[in-house]
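User: tokens in, sequence out, please.
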């Protein structure tokens, strides 16, 4: 079954807007042309994608198709942008994706090196979570990735970069911030505790047992720190992450938690500009991090 990308784009636009008029306006097509495209798509599938004629409610199949189609449309559009960027990159193109805490350490130095030694080089820098870093490498959207943990990927070299220990992060005036001596896991988890995604990298069974009752999980680091700064909550983060949090917060080692986050450098073996990729991966390895 051959389905054109523009058919998927048309369907997704109608599903997002909920009506043919606005969808047609966004697509730069006539309403009748959009309606015909949807009709042909449903005939091709042999089932309805919308309930009723108003196009404001997806059928059960329509919801599944929408999720799948939207991913494909976005991936296609990104591929077109990547192709155009590569074509425009007369002196090369370098794409680096990193977890935010390490991006703050690496990106300024990489940009400085580019400006001094690689005039005319096109560079794309993006910070995101570990899963998105890995996805970008697998999908060919990044040449170099920096992520937490070791994740074997086909066609991508994984190189240990640095380690940093986990510890308590709380408001500077929190009781645990001024408590004499290093706090224990029990101290930390007895306070109102916020779990975050990086906690999954900790291997200590004692720690995971202690946080099993945590009712709040926050994935966004900015939101997490905002809640911690109120003084009502505490969390556990790697020390490198804590280095970039506001002065109103404090990082303290935990006496009975010795786990460290392992940060890896991921280098694509399929980059278009392989010499550049290896040159900058070597440079990043030479930096003093962690």
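Assistant: Sequence out:
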């Amino acid at each position: 079954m051959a389905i054109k990308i523009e058919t998927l784009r048309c369907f997704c636009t109608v599903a997002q807007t909920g009506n043919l008029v606005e969808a047609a306006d966004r697509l730069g097509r006539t309403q009748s042309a959009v309606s015909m495209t949807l009709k042909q798509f449903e005939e091709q599938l042999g089932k309805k994608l919308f309930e009723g004629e108003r196009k404001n409610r997806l059928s059960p199949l329509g919801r599944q198709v929408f999720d799948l189609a939207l991913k494909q449309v976005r991936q296609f559009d990104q591929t077109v942008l990547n192709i155009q960027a590569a074509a425009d990159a007369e002196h090369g193109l370098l794409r680096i994706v990193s977890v935010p805490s390490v991006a703050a350490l690496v990106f300024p130095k990489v940009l400085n090196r580019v400006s001094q030694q690689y005039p005319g080089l096109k560079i794309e820098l993006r910070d995101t979570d570990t899963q998105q870093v890995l996805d970008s490498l697998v999908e060919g959207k990044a040449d170099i990735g920096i992520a937490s943990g070791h994740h074997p990927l086909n066609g991508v070299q994984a190189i240990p970069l640095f380690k940093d220990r986990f510890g308590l992060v709380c408001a500077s005036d929190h009781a645990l911030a001024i408590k004499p001596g290093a706090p224990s896991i029990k101290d930390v988890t007895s306070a109102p505790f916020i779990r975050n995604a990086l906690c999954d990298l900790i291997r200590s069974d004692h720690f995971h047992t202690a946080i099993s009752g945590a009712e709040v999980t926050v994935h966004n680091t900015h939101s997490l720190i905002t809640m911690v700064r109120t003084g009502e909550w505490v969390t556990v983060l790697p020390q490198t992450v804590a280095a970039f949090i506001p002065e109103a917060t404090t990082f303290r080692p935990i006496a009975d938690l010795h786990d460290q986050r392992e940060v890896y450098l991921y280098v694509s073996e399929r980059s278009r500009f392989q010499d550049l990729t290896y040159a900058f991966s070597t440079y990043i390895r030479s930096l003093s991090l962690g």
